[in-house]
Amino acid sequence: MVSKKVLIVYAHQSSGSFNSAAKDAAVEVLTAKGCAVEVSDLYAMTFKATATAEDITGKVKNADHFCYGEETKLAWEAGKLTADISEEQRKLTEADLVIFQFPMYWFTVPAIMKGWMDRVLTLGFAFTHEKRYSQGIFKDKKAMLSFTTGSQESMFSANGINGDMNVTLWPLQNGILHYCGFQVLAPQIFWAPSHISSEARGTMLEGWRTRMQGLLGENPLAFTPLDCFDGEKGYQLKPEVHEKHAAKEFGLTVGNHLGKALPPNNQMKAGV
């Protein structure tokens, strides 16, 4: 059997952090299972976070009205993206599974990781108008978020002050990962590790180690397929999809909720 390749995109400044321990556990367990694991340690790499014209070697098509998406598409086609972007695209192309390991900053990923997404997931390489969502370029790859929070789990509930974590995750998991076609695995959330005992943190890591034993075989989260939307009518849900779900209690997904109650744990658990 061909060994699976795993890319861990890691963003934390400290090797003594819980995020570092979670990353190390993933490397250890997945390597022991026969996977080839690569880590992109973004802070250690001093990875550039800003998407600028400097990401292209040589002349750009229109310097007076620079359009990052179009210019990087042309540069990717011509092999003129900078070496740091090309190397990350190589890793991503080879990977069967991508794990994003990070501390949640302001309800999303740290700036350096968002910069990785902005600069590496270029038009043409990671998506096109025709190839996105369920028909996306990376539809044969899996991806997931693994992250720590500063707030307790109760605070990220439907009744909590931070709001429903399922809603928080929708832009990242649907708007970035699923948009590029990835099969998105349920997130690994480490709730407020800085506020619990070292023993409890150890239990969290053991849970992560246990999950990784079967991680590559997990079913992904559910998203509404692209062909349920009418491309000639502004990509609205087709009438027959509406009719099929008219009598159901919950909407299709967190984002495609049809004005109904959100399906519970839609962005946190597979098979719901």
Describe the 3D structure:
- It is globular and about 55 Å long.
- With 272 residues, the protein is of the alpha/beta class.
- Strand 7 (229-230) and strand 8 (236-237) form a beta hairpin.
- Strands 1, 2, 3, 4, 5 and 6 form a six-stranded parallel beta sheet that branches. A two-stranded antiparallel ribbon has the order 7-8.
- Helix 1 (18-32) packs parallel to helix 6 (198-212).
- It contains seven helices and eight strands, in the order βαβααβαβαββαββα.
- It has one domain (5-221): Flavodoxin domain (Rossmann fold).
- Helix content is 31%, strand content 13%.
- It has helices spanning 18-32, 68-78, 83-94, 111-120, 165-178, 198-212, 239-245; strands at residues 5-10, 36-41, 97-103, 142-148, 183-184, 188-190, 229-230, 236-237.
- InterPro entries: Flavodoxin_fold, Flavoprotein-like_sf, NAD(P)H_dehydrogenase_qn.
- Homodimer.
- Its main location: cytoplasm.
- Its EC number is 1.10.5.1.
- It is found in: Cytoplasm.
Number of strands: 8
Secondary-structure content class: alpha/beta
What Rg, in angstroms, do the CA atoms define?
A: 19 Å
Tell me the helix content: 25-40%
Instruction: Give the CATH level 1 class.
Output: Alpha Beta
CATH superfamily, called what? Answer: Flavodoxin domain
Taking all residues together, what is the mean pLDDT? Answer: 96
Fill in the CATH topology: Rossmann fold
Termini gap:
31 Å
Main pleated sheet: 6 strands, parallel
Shape: globular
The tally of structural domains comes to 1
* Percent of residues in beta strands: 5-15%
- What low-confidence regions span 5 or more consecutive residues with pLDDT below 50? none
- CATH architecture call: 3-Layer(aba) Sandwich
User: Tally the helices: what do you get?
Assistant: 7
Encode the helix/strand succession as letters: EHEHHEHEHEEHEEH
